[in-house]
Amino acid sequence: MQLQTNFLGIHLENPLVLASGILGTTGASLARVAGNGAGAVTSKSVWLKRHAGRPNPTVVNLGKGSLLNAVGLPHGGIEEALVEFESFRRLSQKPLFASIAASNLAEFGETAAAVAELKPDLIELNISCPNVKDEFGKPFACDVKQAAEATSIVKKAIGEIPLAVKLSPNVTNIAEIAKSVEAAGADAITAINTAGPGMAIDIETAQPILANKFGGLSGPAIRPIAVKAVFEIFAAVKIPIIGMGGVTNGRDAIEMLQAGATLIGIGSAAKDGSEVFGKIAAEIAEFCERKKIKNVADIVGLAHKK
Known about the structure:
Layout: E1 5-7, E2 10-12, E3 16-18, H1 27-35, E4 40-42, E5 59-63, E6 66-69, H2 78-91, E7 96-100, H3 105-116, E8 122-126, H4 133-136, H5 144-158, E9 163-166, H6 174-183, E10 188-191, E11 195-199, E12 201-202, E13 207-208, E14 214-218, H7 223-236, E15 241-244, H8 250-259, E16 263-266, H9 276-290
Parallel strand pairs: 3-4, 3-16, 4-7, 7-8, 8-9, 9-10, 10-15, 15-16
Antiparallel strand pairs: 1-2, 5-6, 6-14, 11-14, 12-13
Helix pairs in contact: 1-2, 3-5, 5-6, 6-7, 7-8, 8-9
C-alpha cells in the first residue's frame, strides 16, 4: 500500500511530521527524527531575535503521556536558525518545515521574510502558543481579525513558500478562525496547539510546580479536542490540514486522518524517542492492508462521508 503523501507539492515518505518544539532543538536532532521514520520535521519556533522563554521548571509530566509545559518558545534568533537548518540539510534530505513566532504583527512579517531566505519547504505560522500570552496579550489565533491579518502579512513576506497557520483550540469557533486565515492566504491549517493553559500544584508544598504557574496541556488528554477541531476545520475550508494533538499510535493517526487531516503531527509521543514514527507508520500500513486501502490519502476525511 502507498504511505507516500503529497502535501502542497511537497513529497513525504509518509504522512507523519515532527511537531515544533519536541526533539527539534538542533539540526542534528531534527535529522535523527527524520532518520527514524518521520516524513517531515518542524523546527522549534524561530524568533527574529533571541527570545529567552520561561524559567525552569517548564514541564510537568502528568502521566500516561500527557504534559503541561510553559517553555515559552525559547530561541536564539535568525542566526541560530541558519545554523540549525544548514546542519539538518547536511544530514537529511527530508522536508523541513520552519515554525515562526513573533510578539507583534510587524515582527511576524520581518521574521517570515528572514526565515524565507533560509528556504524551508514550508513555513508554519505559530499564532497560538498559550505560553507567551502573558507577555503579548491573548494569542493572535483567538481573534478572527488578528489571525487573518498575521496570515496576510506573513504570506506576502514569504512569496511562493507554502504557509500553514497553527491554530488554538481555546476558541469558541475554530472553524471561523480557519476560514479567516484561508481567506487571508493560508495554504494549510495546523491544528491544534496545546490546550488550556492548565495548572499543577505540589500538594506537599502547596505551590504551583511550573515557574510560570500555568502551562499548555498536550498529549493523549487533548486528543478528542484535536479530532473535533480537525473534523470541524475540514468541513469549513478547502485547504489541507496538519492534524495534531495526542497522537501516540497508529489508531490515533488513522482517526486523525479520517477526521480530515492530510498530515499528522507527532509531539508529546516523541518525547521518549523518535522511534515512535516508524512504529506509527507501520501500524497505519497494517491497518490499510487489512482494510484493503491502497493509498493512505483515501482515508482522509472518511468520517465526513455518509
